[in-house]
């Protein structure tokens, strides 16, 4: 079976349904509509609806929501004077609340409507929040759960519906874990120093191992469909790889970046975008494995990229957020 046949079978329509993307308008060349001078490094972008996105940042505890049409700030959530700084990652819970994590300060749950903290999970044995994809969430039996990576090479499954949170499962690895992604069948995928592992979290068992997937660390993961996964390598690797979880095959190695790949996102039908320390965002056609185009306008490492409605949003260490149309 050819790479294109594998991808056509693996992609289907499930990935777009999963992320609720609007794909009536295909990707073409991009132009920058707005540059937001946020005066801080942006670490995460979370789409809230077709017109609104939320960002987390390096130097303060505030989360900001933005209007995608004009780049205007809609609200700031949290307290400016707070020991909960450097919010490295955040995710939207199925209940509509936001979970965000900081170095050595645990996880806080915010209510977007009231803009207040409704829960705080501190007993996580010093979470290691060093980049994107370190915090993920899902809904099970009427409860919100988060997956959070810890310094002891473990992945915690925490029920955040209960006050203070309750750790219900722990996945223990022998390597440092950098990133995590949730699969639809209850399994999770982790990226570590060099390997990608698929875990049965119920039994704390690794069921699929992609050995030596990247050297210098697997820093980012993106579930493209129910059985297709993209991963990004560290500063000496710089590649994006596409894996078929069903056949356990490497489908493509996508080369072009000259720095660590910090974030990968599904941004269109059969299209992913990768953000890198080389100050670029590259867009890849998953049916051919070819680069479609590249954003080079940021002046610092790009930490995150997301599609929000019909726009592409990028966040960088150059203390700007850029909104792109196509």
From TrEMBL:
Superkingdom assignment: Eukaryota
Record keyword Repeat present: yes
InterPro entries to which the protein is assigned, alphabetical: WD40/YVTN_repeat-like_dom_sf (IPR015943), WD40_PAC1 (IPR020472), WD40_repeat_CS (IPR019775), WD40_repeat_dom_sf (IPR036322), WD40_rpt (IPR001680)
Keyword Repeat carried by entry: yes
SUPFAM superfamilies in alphabetical order: WD40 repeat-like
Any single GO CC term annotated in Swiss-Prot or TrEMBL for this entry: transferase complex
Keywords: Repeat, WD repeat
Intervals holding WD repeats: 254-286, 295-326
Any Pfam family the entry gives: WD40
Protein name according to UniProt: Uncharacterized protein
Species for this entry: Acrasis kona
